[in-house]
Amino acid sequence: MRVNPGNIKKFDDKVKEIARAASAAGISLRIGVNADSLDVRLPEKHGKASPRALAESALWEASLFEEHGFTDFKISVKHHAPQTMIAAYRQLAQRCDYPLHLGVTEAGPPPQGTIKSATAFAILLAEGIGDTLRVSLTAPPVEEVKTGIQLLQALGLRPRRLEIVSCPSCGRAQVDVYALTAKVQAAFEGFPHPLRVAVMGCVVNGPGEAREADLGVSSGNGKGQIFVRGQVIRTVPEAQIVETLIEEALRLTESSDEVPV
């Protein structure tokens, strides 16, 4: 359950009541601070929801629960600006040992919200700051979950699942990379093994990138060279690239009990 410092008017009585109820029910709490839920005295003191104001509000609230012997909580100091949010969490990490719940609140719709969240989370997690997180997007909740999972996988903090490596297309591309990648992505939807599949659109950089993946294709001149763990195993017509990749992926995962992650 989240405790909002800005909504607690009679702190001594209410905090004691909340602490007792949480202890009796055996549940943990989140002290959740953001620009609209600061202790009402702090905006007057600091002038705005600065990193210092966010951290100070959260720590003061935490101290009240500590007075009543309750420490089963984590802290969040969310803000819509990544710079402010990052600075606030850094202050918390220096001043307490409580678990920290990361969040860029009101981040907006994708891709804006995705980029803002990924920027802030990547910086903090790379510094060892953060124990749980919530990606807040103006999008269906499932998109928030997908974004969070992909972020953790990219940072090596969650076991890797299927990953598609693909080039952005350029003047050297001899295939419609966008269309080919979309077909490969659709074909591998739900594939349960943590393969890295490279979809490359030329014969210049393509072979090198394809060799680095578990499975890949380097396309050009209406054909595709299929790579499996660094080796070219065959060349197929462009129209057969997707089905060949699926065949080789199944063969690769069936022939080995372990797939590198």
Automatic annotation (TrEMBL):
The lineage of its organism: Bacteria, Bacillati, Actinomycetota, Actinomycetes, Kitasatosporales. It holds the Pfam family GcpE_C. PANTHER family: 4-HYDROXY-3-METHYLBUT-2-EN-1-YL DIPHOSPHATE SYNTHASE, 4-HYDROXY-3-METHYLBUT-2-EN-1-YL DIPHOSPHATE SYNTHASE (FERREDOXIN), CHLOROPLASTIC. Keywords: 4Fe-4S, Iron, Iron-sulfur, Isoprene biosynthesis, Metal-binding, Oxidoreductase. It comes from Streptomyces enissocaesilis. Signal peptide: none annotated. The keyword 4Fe-4S applies. Coiled coil: none annotated. This is 4-hydroxy-3-methylbut-2-en-1-yl diphosphate synthase. Gene3D superfamilies: Dihydropteroate synthase-like, Sulfite Reductase Hemoprotein, domain 1. The keyword Metal-binding applies. Its cofactor is [4Fe-4S] cluster. Residues 163-248 form the IspG C-terminal domain. It comes from the Bacteria. Residues 1-148 form the IspG TIM-barrel domain.
